[in-house]
Amino acid sequence: MPSRTLAGVILGLALVRVAVAAASGLTDDEAYYRLWAIAPAVSYYDHPPMVAWMIAAGRWLLGDTPLGIRLAGPLISIIGPFVLWRTTAILFDKETAERAVWLALAMPLLAVGGVVVTPDTPSVLFWGLAAWALAELYVSNNGNWWLAVGLFCGLGLLSKYTNLFAGVGIALWIVLLPENRRWLRSGKLWAGVALALIIALPVVIWNAEHQWASFAKQFGRVVVREPATSRYLFELMGAYLGLASPVIAVLAAIGLWRAVRIAASEKSQSCLMLATMLLPFLGYLLVHAVHDRVQPNWVAPIYPMLAVCAALALSVVPRRDDALRLLRAAVGVGFALCALIYVQAVRPLFSSAGMGDPTSQMRGWREFAAEVERARLANGARWIATASYATTGQLAFALKDGPQVVQLNERLRYAHLALPDDALLSSPALYVELERRSGLPMLRKRFASVTALGALSRSFHGQTLARYTLYRLADPIGPVLEGEGRAEPAHP
Description:
Mean pLDDT is 93; it is low at 484-492. The longest helix is centred in the last third of the chain and has 27 residues, at 320-346. By secondary structure, the protein is of the alpha/beta class. It has helices at residues 4-23, 28-38, 50-62, 66-70, 72-91, 94-105, 108-113, 120-140, 145-157, 164-176, 187-199, 201-209, 213-219, 231-243, 246-266, 269-276, 279-291, 303-315, 320-346, 365-378, 389-398, 422-426, 440-446, and strands at 383-386, 405-407, 429-434, 447-460, 463-476. The protein has 23 helices and five strands. Strands 2-1-3-5-4 form a five-stranded mixed beta sheet. It starts with a helix and ends in a 16-residue tail after the last strand.
């Protein structure tokens, strides 16, 4: 088990994350995933269902509040470090395990994931649990652990398609060392594989019922559509340096290189396992970044393993005092960045306008929604129409006791929800959307009466964060909703 000091820090940070989760507004994605959780389904257009199930459980326990929606984040931030400690202690030693957990706690991306709930939240957890079960298998030589590996891999596939790469890593660990190939003749290995596939079956069923839309969207990212460029590689590297924390990021790169060399030269089981749980996904991300942007959060599932690499790099520093000073510097810088992010989310230190501050999407919605509601009532509208999941989710949460908020397009995102009543859709609506995506041509194709009502700003402490166009919609021309034909879901 971690030292008492480290265990205390893990629990203390979880309490901090609870406070931040309760005090800060929802991100656009969280507000959207809340709409999933209102009617839990076997899967969804954008991602598998685990994040919706976690949000639904949190809402059941603590209500439809920011903390209820985010409850899984702080809870997983307690479980994850203990899992990482045990995995690292098995593969290496307790000192490396202690260092790895300290470094993981100081990674800003994981700190954000301890508050903001997205599909990455369960993805990180189950990737880590799969690695732990594999480590237990290795050290015990007990084939029953394959069932645990299959369980966690299956739950990972219910979290995010990215977790397929964890399975690829496990397969490589088996085939790259002759002594591991004996497991291919074990029925317990194949029972674990079967268990993973059975657990992931709901995602396959949903896709089969919806023209394989989610698979097409997510796996379509693999298709090369843009010429090669170094731009996105530099973006990926910059995001990695910031979100892993600069010192930790460099240490992790050094440690990974060392683990790969030892795995290749000494056939080390531990280093091979670490490398194979990282390299397939890292390789994909680098290839993808040659042609298209890699979103920073995509890398989240392997951040705990990168913390292990950083701890390994510290283990080869010649003098123990130097290693300790470097560890303190890495953790100190990381914690400072994490604290800055948390403070910015709750009580901004700098203006958000025009600075690309991702926390700006979390602010100003209550006041903005109140203005929208006044405009709706003043113009005799019965419901609110939108054209993006972000606006839909945020207004639906801010006006959860008010009028129905309906996105006119991309209806497959809401296949799990009952269609709005025809009588409601036939009545006047207030359309609200960002000025840059006003959607006027779409509105004129669907409504005979489209009346401009000006614009509203979403602001925080007098600073404009975003501007929205308002229209009064009336007299529908045919179906109001994209793909409203009732019998089949809309195509993406």
